Amino acid sequence: VKQERFSPQSNQVRERYRKELKLPEDATVLIYCAELIKNKNQTFLLHAMKKLVDQGENLYCVLVGIDYTKGEMVEYIQ
């Protein structure tokens, strides 16, 4: 793993990505990088995040990876 590739970015880079992804400045953002497949159980993560959001937390989850669920993950999110 190239640590410099995954190190914290400058505020300018963060601001650019937040603007591009329409993420509020004051939100907590979780970035999850992995293949989207059933055996990784990302729906558990999304269900837990929904509970926190329903309780008033300002959370966003950015899923990065190829969707091997044939659209089921996108359908679950919607």
TrEMBL record:
Origin: domain of life: Bacteria
InterPro entries, alphabetized: Glyco_trans_1
Pfam families tied to this protein: Glycos_transf_1
Domain Glycosyl transferase family positions: 14-75
Gene3D superfamilies to which the protein is assigned, alphabetical: Glycogen Phosphorylase B
Any one GO MF annotation of this record: glycosyltransferase activity
Protein name: Glycosyltransferase
Native organism: Streptococcus pneumoniae
